[in-house]
Amino acid sequence: MRAFTYERASSVEAAANAASSNRQSKFIAGGTNLLDLMKLEIETPTHLIDVNGLGLDTIEPTAEGGLRIGALVRNTDLAAHETVRRDYGLLSRALVAGASGQLRNVATTAGNLLQRTRCPYFYDTNQPCNKRQPGSGCSAIGGFSRQHAVVGVSDACIATHPSDMAIAMRALDAVVETVKPDGSHHAIPIADFHRLPGETPHIETVLEQGELITAVVLPPPVGGRQIYRKVRDRASYAFAIVSVGAVIQLDGTGRVAVGGVAHKPWRVEGADAELSRGARSAASALFADARPTEQNRFKIDLVERTLGAVIAEARG
Amino acid sequence: MNHTTKVSFTVNGASRDLDLDNRTTLLDALREHLHLTGTKKGCDHGQCGACTVMVDGRRVNSCLTLAVMHEGDRIATIEGLGEPGNLHPMQAAFVKHDGFQCGYCTPGQICSSVAVLEEIRANIPSHVTGDLTTQTQITEAEIRERMSGNLCRCGAYSNIVDAIVEVAGTKA
Fold first, then answer.
1. A with B: how many residue pairs have Cβ under 8 Å apart?
2. Cβ separation B58–A86 shorter than 8 A
3. Architecture of domain B4-81 in CATH?
């Protein structure tokens, strides 16, 4: 690990200011992903700003009837929260499908959104990777790509976003609240928060340097059957091959977001509209523009079948 | 540029004041600076759980957190749980059920096991929990799922589960 200086931030504004004045700095909250990447020298910040002392760890109802989740709420606490379990079951289910008990006790809401890809070539510093070293090339394209993205990909990158939580957040239309170094407050719909790789796969979100996530807001509950189904290579503690997060209403309408298939939580309006016609119709809409490799083409069928199982369970 | 930071926390009830290179993980602080070598370094990347300790009553991977991030925290390690002649019931159950072979993952397994039973009693849900709106029950399936962050290369899993089930039944 490279040496770095360290400070404990005293306020949101001070944290954002400190980060904007040093482009080599990073915020640290749980640190479960960042420290791992620092040990491998994939991340090499020269300064860490510890935001754990900023509060931001409460879950409160909003005036609109939704829920404001502080950026520092730990994954365990969010999954176990009474209102989340009752009204946003999809979110609880997605959270407990991810990582291990030890990691969920530490990992935060904001950090979960910002976790980086688990593409093995991103982790292997001996291999080219446009995300790790812009312009160096993509080893996954033409390499072992079974786990990689099938839709929204570019010629520069076919990495996936690894979060389970973010799939639920996307299906629930969450809004990410931030503060910029100039003190201004911003609300970013989660649909716009993560970027597709394009020519700049190293830029993964729309956040600016120094912009700090303070909360994630959920709109009022939408009811319905809320199901998160994750398909992985072992029964627990593994990243998704694919995952399906869905809210299905009694009349068969609903919404669906898919994980393990793209650089961001994947949701397509046209697929929601097709949901009542069944999994095949919805999957066709989800993957109309898919560009799979020979090794990961199976994910398209797997999502259709997983979604079919989710719809059947909802009707159950 | 100052690459060291002072930090104070308690370990197994005793106050500890350290001046550490910022890069020092909690695991390395415990082992290399405080010489509490019960906590083990396995993968050092949060994948194996050998380094599991309790921070403010919750189990964490001590390899994936910086020591300087723990100002004022209460750390508990396997040494604080019990010692020869005065074993914690979970330690005794691991011995009784042969819940290990080489023993390297065992401190992490035991810290995690104790926390798992507390987490179920605190009604924290898991991936195998049925109804999210009722009290979670202690079942073998729940224990297996919640222990998935602790790997045992010797494959003592079934005996580990037996040990935890026994302690759960006897109300630790």
1. 106
2. no
3. Roll (3.10)
Structure confidence at residue A234 as a pLDDT band (50, 70, 90): very high
- For the record, the structure tokens of A16 come out as 């954002």
Who among A5, A76, A100 is closest to B49 (CB)? A100
User: Six-digit token pair at A277?
Assistant: 């016609």
Kindly report, residue by residue over A52-110, the tens digit of the pLDDT: 999 999 999 999 999 999 999 999 999 999 999 999 999 999 999 999 999 999 999 99
Instruction: Provide the 8-state DSSP code for B129.
Output: -
Spans of all domains in chain B: 4-81, 89-168
Instruction: Give all domains of chain A, ordered by start, each with its CATH number.
Output: 5-49 (3.30.43.10), 225-315 (3.30.390.50)
In chain A, the percentage of residues whose pLDDT exceeds 70 is 100
d(CA A109, CA A57): 9
Calculate how close chain A gets to B98, using CA atoms only, in Å.
24
- CA distances in angstroms from A218 to A88, A91, A142, listed in the order given: 9, 10, 40
Question: In this model, does residue B172 exceed pLDDT 50?
Answer: no
For the purposes of burial, counting CB atoms within 10 Å of the CB of A204, is it exposed (0-12), middle (13-18) or buried (19 or more)? Answer: buried
pTM of the model: 0.98
Q: What is the distance in angstroms between the Cα of B14 and the nearest Cα belonging to chain A?
A: 23
Chain A residues at the B interface, defined by Cβ less than 8 Å, are: 1, 3-6, 8, 28, 30-32, 35-36, 39, 48, 50, 52, 76, 79-80, 85-86, 89, 92-93, 96-97, 99-103, 105-106, 235-237
**Average pLDDT of B149-161?**
98
Helix (H) or strand (E) holding B156: none
Tokens of A121: 């070539």
Q: Alpha carbon of A141 to those of A242, A291, A296, B39, B49: distances in Å?
A: 19, 11, 11, 41, 33
Q: Which fold has domain B89-168?
A: DNA polymerase; domain 1 (1.10.150)
pLDDT in tens, A202-229: 999 999 999 999 999 999 999 999 999 9
| pLDDT for A316 | 85
Average pLDDT of every residue of chain B = 97
B67 in Cβ contact with B18 (< 8 Å): yes
Q: Please, where are the H alpha helices in B35-123?
A: 78-81, 89-96, 106-121
